[in-house]
Design goal:
The chain has 222 residues and is of the alpha+beta class. Helices cover 35% and strands 27% of the residues. Helix 1 packs antiparallel against helix 2. It is elongated, with a radius of gyration of 25 Å.
Length: 222
């Protein structure tokens, strides 16, 4: 059993983890405060023989506090996460020199289209691999995704990437690996009876190894 997040291997993973940690600490503190208050009120105002109930219309100060404090906490979380969210989700902020890939999802597989040695998609040397995502280390990767049938969710836990893939829409994500290795590509949306085996492999190569693999695969597909 693993406690906490899986290993982070992306450039922005640490930022996302810090936002999750902040949300966890805030919600944990609120949970403790509410539960302690609940226990106190259960004991303080428990039934007593001969005690007479008293009607209370309200308490303006308490109502202001429990309205303003959650508002400020939510504003803090929104302010803390907005820059990161826009940097990850706004296509106009994606790195311009990113490697372009295309993924077409369907029950129950990920079909990845790679550019050939020319480095450009939609040219004769493109090739497709099923459930195999190969990436170069230390280079941004921009993925454009479509779905053939139902909603899928492109999930790379070690990269802190999760993006729904919706029929009739193009969705995009970007990320950058910080080390080489083998990782997991999963679907985080219940997409049908075969959802449990909609898994792929992620291989992060050195730049030289990726170029070599790219040339070999393009030649094998020609």
């Amino acid at each position: 059993m693993q406690w906490g997040f899986p290993e982070n291997v992306s450039t922005f993973g640490g930022e996302i983890d810090s936002i999750f940690a902040l949300i966890l600490y805030v919600t944990a503190a609120m949970f403790v405060i509410v539960e302690v208050a609940l226990i106190y009120f259960l004991i303080r105002y428990r039934h007593r023989e001969g005690a007479k109930a008293e009607y209370i219309h309200g308490h303006r100060r308490a109502e202001v506090i429990w309205t303003v404090v959650p508002f400020l906490l939510l504003a803090l979380l929104a302010f803390r996460s907005t820059k990161t969210w826009l940097g990850l989700k706004s296509p106009d902020r994606f790195p311009r020199d990113a490697l372009e890939l295309r993924i077409h999802a369907k029950q129950f597989e990920w079909n990845v289209t790679y550019p050939g040695p020319d480095g450009r998609l939609d040219t004769p040397d493109d090739f497709v691999r099923r459930n195999q995502l190969h990436l170069p280390v230390d280079r941004a990767v921009r993925v454009t995704m479509t779905s053939e049938d139902v909603i899928h969710s492109f999930f790379l836990p070690q990269f802190r990437v999760k993006q729904d893939v919706v029929p009739g829409m193009e969705t995009q994500v970007w990320f950058q690996a910080t080390r080489t290795g083998e990782f997991v590509l999963g679907c985080a949306e219940l997409c049908g009876l075969g959802h449990y085996h909609m898994r792929g492999s992620v291989t992060v190569h050195t730049a030289e190894d990726f170029e070599r693999w790219q040339r070999q695969e393009a030649a094998a597909s020609s």
